[in-house]
UniProtKB/TrEMBL annotation:
Record membrane topology: Single-pass type I membrane protein
Signal peptide: 1-22
Assigned keywords, A-Z: Cell junction, Cell membrane, Disulfide bond, Glycoprotein, Immunoglobulin domain, Membrane, Signal, Tight junction, Transmembrane, Transmembrane helix
GO molecular function ontology, one term from the record: integrin binding
Gene that produces this protein: JAM2
GO CC annotation terms, alphabetical: bicellular tight junction; cell surface; cell-cell contact zone; plasma membrane; protein complex involved in cell adhesion
Annotated Ig-like domain residues: 32-127, 134-238
Predominant cellular place of this UniProt entry's protein: other
Gene3D superfamilies: Immunoglobulins
Family stated for the protein in its record: Belongs to the immunoglobulin superfamily.
The protein, known as: Junctional adhesion molecule B
PROSITE patterns noted in UniProt: IG_LIKE
The keyword S-adenosyl-L-methionine is annotated on this UniProt entry: no
Cell inner membrane recorded as keyword: no
């Protein structure tokens, strides 16, 4: 009795597996596959492979690019969009001849074919990563600076994928990330950030005068900005003091001149002269009025 019950249990399990496999084939629930990640350099070629066992006459293939909205790449046996001019089909795979950074993203190939149990659907997903070399970075280098101040030089690139690292050069020589390891003739007060591209002098000196340029580099390539000259001068304390003294003397002399003029009465004489001129004009007006009145009486 125990053997019969065990045989029945095995038969039930086998039937369940057969039904499950039939459902699996009928509704296209394929076994999960390893997710592919393909890396390509911009403007080179890349192949997006659809790992499908065999291609049959009745197989239908579709390629889609996934994202916020799904777009067809290969549909109804034809490449779509701009892939018409720069891609070709190799069985189930797509060969892109001139890949661009806009091609980066997730793609899915779907292969459907009729079977005895119904329509069988298999899928495969590929992620395309496009690497881009850095462009000419934008460099900010001041043309002049005062000794003893804080000065920051900036370098940035917005094109490189992955994000590049930055290196600064002075007079054609590479600056070390750790300035204490350099020669004693160079200023060791600077701080260089290879990630952000900044070169900061905490206390700049005349030794830091020179031509500076920056290089951006990632795994694809590198690029440099044109060199720019930075001149560091000492603060002329004596000249500033002399200028202040001269201005003070000029103001003092002008003040003394005004006081002297007031004591001598130059300002009061000018006022009395103005009063005298106005009083001399008054009799003339009255004399004219008198003549006019006399002629009117006559």
């Amino acid at each position: 009795m125990a053997r019969r019950s065990s045989h029945r249990l095995l038969l039930l399990l086998l039937r369940y597996l057969v039904v499950a496999l039939g459902y699996h084939k009928a509704y296209g629930l394929s076994a999960p596959k390893d997710h592919q990640v393909v890396t390509a350099i911009e403007y080179q070629e890349v192949i997006l492979a659809c790992k499908n066992p065999k291609k049959t006459i009745s197989s239908r293939l579709e390629w889609k690019k996934l994202g916020r909205s799904v777009s067809f790449v290969y549909y109804q046996q034809a490449l779509q969009g701009d892939f018409k001019d720069r891609a070709e089909m190799i069985d189930f795979s797509i060969r892109i001849k001139n890949v661009t950074r806009s091609d980066a993203g997730k793609y899915r190939c779907e292969v459907s074919a009729p079977s005895e149990q119904g329509q069988n659907l298999e899928e495969d997903t590929v992620t395309l990563e496009v690497l881009v070399a850095p462009a000419v970075p934008s460099c900010e280098v001041p043309s002049s600076a005062l000794s003893g101040t804080v000065v920051e030089l900036r370098c940035q690139d917005k094109e490189g994928i992955p994000a590049p690292e930055y290196t600064w050069f002075k007079d054609g020589n590479r600056l070390l990330e750790n300035p204490k390891l350099g020669s004693q003739s160079t200023n060791s007060s600077y701080t260089m950030n290879t990630k952000s591209g900044t070169l900061q002098f905490n206390t700049i000196s005349k030794l830091d005068s020179g031509e500076y340029f920056c290089e951006a580099q990632n795994s694809v390539g590198h690029s440099r900005c044109p060199g720019k000259r930075m001149q560091v001068d000492d603060l002329n304390i004596s000249g500033i003091i002399a200028a202040v003294v001269v201005v003070t003397l000029v103001i003092s002399v002008c003040g003394l001149g005004v006081c002297y003029a007031q004591r001598k009465g130059y300002f009061s004489k000018e006022t009395s002269f103005q009063k005298g001129s106005s009083s001399s004009k008054a009799p003339t007006m009255s004399e004219n009025d008198f003549k006019h009145t006399k002629s009117f009486i006559i």
